[in-house]
Amino acid sequence: MALKSVGYAGLNLYHSLEKELDNFKILKLVQIDRKQTVMDVNYHTSVKESDLRKISNNLSKIYGMMPESTQTRLKTKGNSVTFGNPEKPQLGTFRINFNLNKEDGGRIKTPVQEKGTTIVFQRALNENKSFNSASDILNDKKTRKLLDECFKGYEDKLIDWVHTYYEQQKVFLKKFKGVRWSEFKYGDDDFVKFFEKQIKNVARSVDPTVVPLKKYTEWNPSDIWAAYNMPKLKEEIQKTITKKEWGSLGELNSFLTRKFREQELIGISLKLIGPEKQAKLVFRNDTEDNYKIAEVEDYQVGRDIKFDLDNIWQKSDVGAVTVYAFYGNSFGFNFTRAGNQIAFSTQVLSGGKRTSAQGGNTPVEMVEKLLNNLVSNNNYSNHFRDYPLTYDDFLELPEQKFESYKKMYNLVKPYFSSNAPSFGEFAKIDGVLHKTYKNDERNGRLKLMFLSFFSNAFRIKKDDQKEFWTDMLYMGMKIGKKGQFAPHAKIGEKTS
User: Fold this and answer.
1) Closest CA relative to residue 458, chosen from 297, 294, 314, 325
2) How many domains would you assign to the chain?
3) Residue 493 β-bridge partners
4) Contact 279, 494 (CB under 8 A)
5) Would the pTM count as exceeding 0.85?
6) What domain range includes position 156?
7) Stretch among 94-98, 141-145, 349-353, 420-424 having the lowest mean pLDDT
8) 472 closest CA partner among 489, 449, 453, 487
9) What separation in angstroms does the CA of 335 have from each of 217, 364, 366?
10) What is the pLDDT of residues 58-102, one digit of tens each?
């Protein structure tokens, strides 16, 4: 949308500003909100204020600077500079507000993030509104009005998400330009809510016993859906999964795969796109090639799949204890506490470093089943009541149980760093384990849970180790050829 030429050289100033930002390689780190005689330049925390001062000085050489701007006016939101000819004030002025976004947009509520995506998708894919930059989204009156309503109470965080929305729609539009979609909806009428109700009638298996599908998120990571003829699709799905007493998850996934390929129904998993990062669209579980991640298939335990478990024996203060597994430079696992259990959370890495993208959680029940299938006499439990509940309970631990934890520790110890203590040092009075139980009993139990989980995992036969750890990753990311998970698309950061 072109800027109206109201005030002093507004349009020319805007173009000059964009050119300067690009020269300093920070154009992608800002969003420009243009008004009649004011521009708000909202910039990310990684932008250097010294660069912004240089840009202001460069612009002042072309457009002049009013006297009140010769001294920087610090405000809560940022710095303001008024451009114009001091000798000819009748020509008008134009103010630029440089506004620092101090908080990470990832802290807003998930429904706000996801509804924002549907707003932009609706405008770009169904209403044919062309967005050539993140600033275009902010400057489109209809889109901005809807986003402002969506982000009510989180107004300062909208700027952090506009870049994500721009990248999401750009990469999806590139693949599906010209495809017809129903109105993008979020809330009570959307497909997420629909499936959350319908899966109560779906079973992972019925032989020999019924194993119901418990949660939508354990089957499908999709946050929003692109659908064509939504009422008809909902009717067809209901018929597919209610023709028997228990609907089959395999039949449901087959139906979704067909509609996925016909471009009539596509579930989309959404991830935050970091500043200066581009989005990438990938498909999962719709074809044989997409039942796996090619590079992961070549990974070997010890060479590519490595572990950082030192927090088991190092950390004793209050705060969640977290240990890690890394899959090359691309993926990782965070093992930490969720309530009274271990949470198995996958991460997407870039060059071995964390990104803003979460991969999803591996369901506890699947972890236990996988261990049972691969470990003889598996004794791992993810139930907190199977461990000493209190510090006093820990002190009164029977000798036999104490010895079993010693065996677990010694099985895991080769995966610790070289300065790891013996179990005797770890478990002695006033040692790490004692101090942890004293400080936070939940973390004390968590350390013992870790020992139980990893000692059983490392007992898996050498030839089956790779299968176990790659299956753990795939289950967290909701990828698999066994009919466990739904076909879906994922829009996340491009990491290479």
Assistant:
1) 325
2) 3
3) 279
4) yes
5) no
6) 108-292
7) 349-353
8) 453
9) 19, 12, 15
10) 998 888 888 765 444 433 345 788 888 877 766 677 888 888 765
* Alpha-carbon radius of gyration of the chain: 27
Distances (CA, A) of 33 to 37, 101, 129, 135, 450: 11, 14, 18, 7, 50
DSSP string of 166-188? HHHHHHHHHHHTT---PPP--ST
117 and 256 part of one domain? yes
pLDDT digits (tens, 9 = 90+) for 433-475: 999 999 889 999 999 999 999 999 999 999 899 999 999 999 9
- Do 287 and 304 reside in the same domain of the chain? no
Residue type present at position 63: Y
Q: Are 53 and 89 contained in the same domain? A: yes
> If you search the block for the tokens 């939940």, which residue do you land on?
442
CA 189 – CA 196 distance, rounded (Å): 12
Q: Look at residue 444 and tell me if it is in a domain.
A: yes
Type of residue at 66 = M
Rounded CA-CA distance 143/146 in Å is 5
Q: Any idea what DSSP says for residue 189?
A: T
81 occurs within a structural domain: yes
| Tokens read off for 109 | 């509520």
How many Cβ atoms are within 10 Å of 72's Cβ, its own excluded? Answer: 13
How far is residue 342's CA from residue 380's CA, in Å, rounded to a whole number? 12
Pairwise CA distance, residues 394 & 391, whole Å: 5
Residue that is written with structure tokens 């420009």 in the block:
32
Distance CA 4, CA 284 (A): 46
Q: Report helix angle 158-176 to 141-150, nearest 10.
A: 120
pLDDT at 278: 92
User: For the range 82-86, what are the long-range contacts, defined as Cβ-Cβ under 8 Å and sequence gap of 24 or more?
Assistant: 83/8, 83/9, 83/13, 83/59, 84/8, 85/8
CB 16 within 8 A of CB 34: no
d(CA 287, CA 284): 8
Contact 283, 290 (CB under 8 A): yes
Q: What is the b/e burial string over 250-259, where b = at least 16 CB atoms within 10 angstroms of the residue's CB?
A: eebbebbbeb
Residues 360 and 321 in one domain: yes
How many alpha carbons fall within 13 Å on the CB side of residue 123?
Answer: 24
Contact criterion met (CB below 8 Å) for 449 and 403: no
Q: Which residue has the tokens 């809330």?
A: 187
**316 domain residue, yes or no:** yes
